[in-house]
RNA sequence: GUCCCCGUAGCUCAGCUGGAUAGAGCGACAGCCUCCUAAGCUGUAGGUCACAGGUUCGAAUCCUGUCGGGGACGCCA
């Protein structure tokens, strides 16, 4: 149920008729001819660009086509105030009863309202966070986590079959370094060494906890053993420990991924060899020597023949190495194996959410997915820009080396998971984000979490009041469903209704663009109109939602209030944020 | 040197994939509480959409170039 979709369909029906009876040339592409809310609500309630879009291919003047459409649409019983405007827009209004009736599905469907079948159950894999298991999550990771999870929720709402996935980078040098660093902390926990962490080890204090946990579990078991014995078990132990923290932090944000894929398991299962096979079959692999990188030149650069993937065939800038000089696979080779695995699990559409520092990696990975799937699968990459933490406008220094980086759990403890989630979604993923700790706690219009939650709480407050002191008015959805709505006539009421009715459209366009932040802005907009209406009731008491002595009016307004709360809750659900019943 | 992202009001940012007179918040200024939560609301001021070309009925949006900011550039992940 999406009014704009319905009218787009009708309009295209008329256009097809015109093509059939020769008033328009046959074979026109109608896909760009749509019915939308106009940019400026003052113009009309509905608007179509059809005449302008079709003018050129039809060889007719926009206003001429618009005129024909106007005539056709004039026969629709609900359409009124039809007019051709500007360069060829066709504008019209619907009778208020159409908008009022559109409120009912909101109450009937509850937070399911806005769901779409656009995705048609197509499987989509969204991979996000995928932080190295070498330390706790930072604020930077949180952004990718939140964006990825909200995107997954959005696509689900839009009818896709979404899998939420985390790729554990538990292979390679970094986790070996983790194991060695853990060993030092383990000795420290047993009182053996002063904790002086040499160069080349992870200095983070958090590893003390891992060392102690290990000592508690295994006692002195590893003390006399050589590295070759303890490396693997300590690595496993540390990774499991830290993944536990990570999952815990994610849970506090309401994020639960369905699948955790282990890089090491994939490699050990021979997934990289399969990649090589596929590449060889398609002649996409060769041994060659790369030119040294321009600009910042590594000191130890020497030309060396390497095993290369022909990424340039798929739009990358250079071919990419698959093997390190010690003979082990590059991260890229492993990652190819992982994405091949996702493809073989049935995902033709894959989305990865990465940090800004991986921007240079996008082309090669997209190339890889195209190559490995022979063009059947496509990878989209959402790059998340940096988060700048401030407090009262003053930047907080974040340095991993100095150990003063802000751990995600500290941020959550200070401002709460919901605030973290919502604020991280108030910017597009590819724009930098300022996160002000004071703002996140502020209870003002400046703080979008609060502002949107307040709208929901206010709505619920009205419904509570109605339930307490209004004879003849029921607040149950089934009872509200039968209520007459004609008394909703104020222009601000109708304007709020039109905004609520746009919700399914917002879901679809946001999902199509893979931009969850649009939901945040929409919810803010809904909140603003609701607060506005509320406050008008201060002066104009006849506009208050609850009208003693007028049960019909009160009931109709309760439908609107309930619908507002429902749409807000439906949006927050996509974000994994709990709508609050009241503010404390 | 190459590639990617960004540049919109004093500040922080939207702008529905090319539409009509470019919109919010903050800050500034002027107002609104006997009353469903003033934790809110209303109004005013503020713009060469970085710049220059191009594409077209129409450009903040698409293309090219320039300037400015950020990120990336074999054997880290």
Spell out the key features of this protein.
584 residues, alpha/beta, Gyrase A, domain 2, Rossmann fold, 4 domains, 5-stranded parallel beta sheet, 4-stranded antiparallel beta sheet, 22 helices, 49% helix, globular, RNA-binding
Descriptive report:
The protein has 584 residues and is α/β, with parallel strands linked by helices. The chain folds into 4 domains: 3-94, Gyrase A, domain 2; 123-167 and 256-384, 3-Layer(aba) Sandwich (Rossmann fold); 173-250, no CATH class; 445-575, Isoleucyl-tRNA Synthetase, Domain 1. It contains 22 helices and 15 strands. A 5-stranded parallel β-sheet has the order 7-6-5-11-12, sandwiched between helices. Strands 1-2-4-3 form a 4-stranded antiparallel β-sheet. A 3-stranded antiparallel β-sheet has the order 8-9-10. α6 (139-157) links the parallel β5 (123-127) and β6. It is globular and about 85 Å long. The two termini are 36 Å apart. The structure holds one RNA strand of 77 nucleotides.
